[in-house]
Here is the input.
Amino acid sequence: MVAAQVIGVGSYAPERRLDNAELSRTVETSDAWIRERTGIGERRIAAPDEAASDLATAAAKRALAVAGLQPNDIDMVMVATVTGDRPLPATAAIVQRKLGITNRCGAFDLAAACAGFVYGLGLGNALIGQGQCRHVLVIGVEVLSRFVNWEDRTTCVLFGDGAGAVVLGPGAAEAPAGIDGVHLHCQGSMSHLLTIPAGGSEKPASGASLAEREHYVRMEGQDVFRVAVKELASACLSAIDALQMTTSDVDWVVAHQANERILEAVAQRSGIPFERFFRNIARYGNTSSASIPLALDEAYRSGSLEPGSKLVLCALGAGIAWGSCVLRWQLPKPTPQPTRQRGESPSESVA
Here is the structure.
């Protein structure tokens, strides 16, 4: 089998920043309350004329630039999202069009919520490994700001908008696999814990009053917290054990940025020091399927990732779906760039 690796990475965060102080003027909360419980200080909000495909396309262009590829070099487009542009067509098809890809490559969406990007990496790795594709574009994108109840402080303080993308390509014949130890799981019996009840074929319509509306995220927060800590820690260790590694071999954990308290608990339970967890949740909040690729791009552009670094990626979200893998980083450090403007790729890091 051909060994796949990440050959390009990019991200996009909308320009508008909604910080906790501003949010506290519209819902009963405070900066201290949010930071203490989540670690979040602000989140990005998409402009009214920005759809998921716009954010995804911007991130994809940056990933292609790093990879040194043209759009028509891509053999498959995968978009992990639960907040796509429309019920149909797939947001991936719209991204394909916006990128100017004319080679009729495959394009489809993944709906594994916060775990979607890890699922996409696993599928992209398999497609390249079997020789069916040479270059696969995997994007995680969410515009969750349009799917939260801004009067519900238990959910609206958590989520933000953003996109991240990677280009997967074949590695050198003698190089170890760039993506390995993939584990993908789902426990459907817990699907009620995190859901958007309406908007699908089961319940296409919703009530008129805000209290009755069901097109918004609903979450059993304490239950999700407990499951996330248990399964993310287990998933990290499963990926490590599958490759006969130890926790001391791990240079970075790039986990889904859901809640800083969850990350702290996962570190304690897994035995991986918390300082090895790359964290940017304070600036972006929970961007669901976008959070891992957005963090990867930020870690790369900040110079935190050395060629040969071993990263553990893990995520858990609605379903309840979760997954993990080990990513051996091969990209050389980027050339230092001028300070970026708001709305461009992230350039800061928090470790």
About this structure: Residues 221-242 form the longest helix (22 residues). Residues 247 and 271 are 7 Å apart (CA to CA). The longest strand covers residues 161-170. The chain has ten helices and 13 strands.
